[in-house]
Amino acid sequence: MFRNSMPRYxxxxxxxLAQLDAGxxxxxxxxxxxxxxxxxxxxxxxxxxRVEENTVFLxxxxxxxxxxKAPKEFDVHARNPQNxxxxxxxxxxxxxxxGPPFVREGEVRRDGTFDDFKNFCKLSQxxxxxxxxxxxxxxxxxxxxxxxxxxxxxxxxxLTDKIYMGNVVSGVNARDTIAMGAILxxxxxxxxKNPVSISLINCNSPLRWDDRMLDALFEYCEAAxxxxxxxxxxxxxxxPVTIPAALVQQIAEALxxxxxxxxxxxxxxxxxxxxxxxxxxxSGSPTFGTPESAIGLLCTGQIARHFGLPFRSGGGLxxxxxxxxxxxxxxxxxxxxxxxxxxxxxxxxxxxxxxxxVASYEKFIIDCQIAEMLQHMFKPLEIDAxxxxxxxxxxxxxxxxFLGAMxxxxxxxxxxxxPFLSSSDNYExxxxxxxLDAAARASKVWKDRLExxxxxxxxxxxxxxxxxxxxxxxxxxxx
Amino acid sequence: MFRNSMPRYxxxxxxxLAQLDAGxxxxxxxxxxxxxxxxxxxxxxxxxxRVEENTVFLxxxxxxxxxxKAPKEFDVHARNPQNxxxxxxxxxxxxxxxGPPFVREGEVRRDGTFDDFKNFCKLSQxxxxxxxxxxxxxxxxxxxxxxxxxxxxxxxxxLTDKIYMGNVVSGVNARDTIAMGAILxxxxxxxxKNPVSISLINCNSPLRWDDRMLDALFEYCEAAxxxxxxxxxxxxxxxPVTIPAALVQQIAEALxxxxxxxxxxxxxxxxxxxxxxxxxxxSGSPTFGTPESAIGLLCTGQIARHFGLPFRSGGGLxxxxxxxxxxxxxxxxxxxxxxxxxxxxxxxxxxxxxxxxVASYEKFIIDCQIAEMLQHMFKPLEIDAxxxxxxxxxxxxxxxxFLGAMxxxxxxxxxxxxPFLSSSDNYExxxxxxxLDAAARASKVWKDRLExxxxxxxxxxxxxxxxxxxxxxxxxxxx
Lengths: 479, 479
Fold this sequence. Notes:
The structure is a homodimer. In chain A, 45% of the residues lie in helices and 15% in strands. The first copy, chain A, contains 18 helices and 20 strands. The first copy, chain A, has helices at 14-31, 38-46, 60-67, 114-126, 148-159, 171-185, 188-193, 211-222, 243-264, 291-306, 325-340, 361-377, 385-388, 390-396, 406-409, 427-432, 438-452, 460-476; strands spanning 2-3, 33-35, 50-52, 55-57, 74-76, 85-87, 91-94, 102-105, 108-111, 164-166, 197-203, 208-209, 227-235, 270-273, 275-279, 286-287, 311-312, 345-346, 352-353, 358-360. Chain A is an alpha/beta fold. In chain A, strands 10, 11, 13, 14, 15, 16 and 17 form a 7-stranded mixed beta sheet that branches. In chain A, strands 3-4-2-12 form a 4-stranded mixed beta sheet. In chain A, strands 9-8-20-19 form a 4-stranded mixed beta sheet. Chains A and B meet through helix 1, helix 9, strand 16, helix 10 and helix 11 of A and helix 1, helix 9, strand 16, helix 10 and helix 11 of B.
């Protein structure tokens, strides 16, 4: 997996951090955080926090004591051990887009299907730049609603041998995901020791945690499966319009959720989550790949490190409706800061289009290209006698060229990153080969990848047991 | 003009810098630098440097003594004083693409014309994000070759009231540019005190300065007009394939050119130039927006600061043949590092397409959009009681929204950057309004901008004098 040993780009001064720190303390103390769950309220009350109706007024020191119980770094295990990921430190792990109800394929935008879901699993398996297909790569709208999570989990477990995300629609769905993880990895005790999934618990910002997400959180934390406590903030709607206010709110929300996770099971692995962008104040539309979002991301990294927590943010976000120039620059406008901030868990790396409403095949390929470029950019420079190349100058002299120099011959195969999508063909060759723009070439790439996809090997007995579990539970759920 | 008061992203350790430092010293001492100009050789010889044929073997300490004579920061004056730019420190100035023989307009790629040139001048005037149209925004292939520089300079001086770049094809052309600057600003003595142009002197890398460019350098330096000493390096062809070697070569080339400039006129304003990308080692094609180029750029900034010099690099570079997703992500892949490095003089900010062979109208607009986003991103965060927004939380409470909050109402007009090209329309509205992708919308933008363009006011007598100079010189040059 990718490790980012380049420096972090940090833009908050110590004084700024102190002001944000004072900000979240005041929020949790004076405004408090709502938890729409009796179990959560009871846990906080039992731990000595003041609870009024659904609002918990938190002592910041208590919150930090809970946060300190969370591991700073941990592994999430894949069924192929080579794909096990480390979360935290300088490690960066990447998952595909999560949540879109629609799919775009070439010129067609339509409801997402389970076939699309399986295709995106296969594409995620096929690209080394991704550590995971994620979870709900697209909503499989043609499958029954109550048992859909079983189909998705089965596809993630069988079509990829990478880590996967857990379903969070309800406690029931979470239990099923955990049970299927136990089947795949050899028992609940095994996965409690070596977590196998990451689950996204979104805050209903501002300052409210909803019951269904919390029910899922309880299940995952009891099973010691990592949860990403994520304030979902579109500034201007779910937070004040100022970035510092959004950051303060984000800390209050993430830390209050993390405190709850630690009350459920001390030491449970957690990730400080961030999904931070803004709306267009004229139209009310969510906007992505914005300067404000990039700044928020850089700050979030610094804040998470301040609390000693791994963090999630970033991705190839864009508002664009099609995989055009805007989609390209907006995706990079978030993805480069994702690397600058050293984001540990990156959701929405590939495939995000149209404000996240669409999983796009072409954008998936474009994003994998961008992420691969960035993984090459964020590699430390090796400086030694060989790379300083004095001998090459001796050989070539003034005004010559280095194409045939010995120094070049020894290195030319690997010296530069070679993109799989970007074209540097001269215009004549480009015209001759069809004059395809990046989206059209991406279309060929994903079709080729699906064609050459090979399902990763799996024990037949385990696969049968998973299938049997899916069938049984589907029946029980009435679908 | 834009000032970047965000931190610089520096990736070279002190040890790495020391190794690069030793590297260029060895290059200039043992390999030397070729100057294809008797006058240059004589200047170096007279200053005590060893000269053998066209090669000058430089004493690194002598080079640094010359470099120390250059100003760390300086102004370049525009005829509209509001458009005067500062070069150096945290100032960043931006010019349009420079040099393309071809133009792309919508689906058509063709030879560039003088009408195109004038259009790009007008567009550069119209976008506040640009400080200059640059110089050869495109080659005006329909104008006579020997007097073309007069037409271009006249257009830059009259259609914009921003700073412009000097022609460098020959010493004669440089003299004409200077003479026209003297007319515009009220005399040669005036512009010698307050420089009015920046001129690009490219090195014929590796380690060779050619005569025509040097002839131009002599003219500009004698007139105290800033020159950008720029190694033109496509790694693998004009330098070894390793980034450290390219950086070392770049230092040797830039500093040797700067030393010459200081021998011509001590204290002449100079800019440490960098144009650093790589070729595709399989096809030999130049590639832009690459990870290697981004890394080189970050290092270059750090190196230039190490020598106390303002520097030039960056731009909206791309290999893409059309303004597609690749053009978008490659442009940002260079432009964001341009900001991270705090580049002082940014050429090729807008309009670059197809490896620099094409000035594209649509890409020009896309790049202005990207540059504007980045200027908003690289603004320091203001953290105070107002921006922390505690009162907004008191007003909104848990799970509410901030759209109508007082805190929002006070700020909603200016709180977020509002793009002029990117669309965040919902899909239905986007379809209803023509389903235009970013390139198609860019096409409307540049046409609208040209339509609403107003020539900046100018003294009639000066304009007549410039026109008379152009006519007379064209006649003398036989065109």
